[in-house]
Amino acid sequence: MDEQGLASVRTRLEDFAAGVFAGLPRSDQRATGLRYLRGLMLDGRRKSMQPMARRLGVDHQQLQQFLTSSTWDVAGVRRRLAAVAADVVDPQMWVVDDTGFPKDGKASACVSRQYSGTLGKVGNCQIAVSIHAATDTASAVLNWRLFVPESWDKSCVPDTDGKIANPHARRLRRQPTTLDAAGAKKPHTRKQLPREEQIAQILRRRAASKLPDDERYRPKWMMALEMLDELAGWGQHPPLLTADAGYGQVAEFRQGLTERDIRYIVATTSTTTAQPGTAHPVEVDYAGIGPYPTPRYPQPARSVKDLTLAHGIEATTMVRWRDRLPATDHASTRPTELSGHFLALRVRPAGRAIQRGPDCGDDGVLPECWLLAQWPPGQDEPTDYWLSDLPSTTPLTELVRLAKSRWRIEHDYRELKTALGLDHFEGRSWIGWHRHVTLATAAQLFLTQLRLTHPKAAGQN
């Protein structure tokens, strides 16, 4: 948005910022917050502090101090943003996802060599987990968390006996290998620092980026549940939740949603195991000692791939779930609707976590849910799978529409990164990162509000 376009919505932006920053104790903090939003929305390739300060005509140290050392509650701003987003978007579902922030150095908070979907490979980056409110026409971020890698947590460093204190850290660490000239495996020698030096290095990095002492490594799915609990404390509850297979394949994550009374439809992998929906456990003979055994299913659980293959591609149905977005090439002859072949089955997901969970009763009956599979014609097997605890009366078309609803989130990430500088923050502090992404979220929410309520406002597409 250029200066003229921003000036045309100045009053609306000031009213929006007044509500978002209402909890900031000082007037200069509220003024700088508004100024930062203007800097994020103004045209410009870089949205780091120095380029923004030049465009705004202010000292960049003012913006830096606001992000890194000023005393204002980022959680309070997010709480107010979440309330506004719920009103503006009126979501049909919430989406859990994560995104990468590529980095060159090693000093930024929680940067590490790790897999990033943004990069499509392992690279030096930060990873953030986010929750979005979404419909087919609009979406907005509700909450953020910065993922803490194991290399930033001293409780993930094995002790002298090889034991790891952090209960979530990987227990099995494979020795990296490479191939010699003959194709045989040979050890890949990687220099390992002594345990004391590893811990000292972690403590220095945490102190330099001011990581809170209680921030430890835990899986991304657990961080998502934490954010859902925080949002619930703010009075926000999802009508439905969806997530990719990185979250959906984890039984503990699905159980966590059920315990929070959150309906879901989440992607999973072909290796997820389940019993057919019609299967029933049978009584097991009592050995005469110890407690009576729980009834068990007579056949071992099968992968969702095998369960789907047993029905065959003939059981699939063509489903159209939404209109295709306008093509950039006006001469395109692509179909105007997105469609595919799908199959829905009732199954009972298996596994130790579910068998030990609260939903598995004393009779051994596993909880039932939907298995949705997409099976393109000409393929030997399905390409995508989802699990859902929606009612058994849910139509196939509705299952497909909801399963495919995550596409809006890519729009969020694209707009936040390319237009609003989400990944342009060059500071190294934990609090600075969280404040920057919160302010970028506020800028995107304001633009979303303009699009929905004043679609012809300057700078809107």
From TrEMBL:
<feature type="domain" description="Transposase IS701-like DDE">
    <location>
        <begin position="20"/>
        <end position="325"/>
    </location>
</feature>
<dbReference type="InterPro" id="IPR039365">
    <property type="entry name" value="IS701-like"/>
</dbReference>
<dbReference type="InterPro" id="IPR012337">
    <property type="entry name" value="RNaseH-like_sf"/>
</dbReference>
<protein>
    <submittedName>
        <fullName>SRSO17 transposase</fullName>
    </submittedName>
</protein>
<dbReference type="InterPro" id="IPR038721">
    <property type="entry name" value="IS701-like_DDE_dom"/>
</dbReference>
<dbReference type="Pfam" id="PF13546">
    <property type="entry name" value="DDE_5"/>
</dbReference>
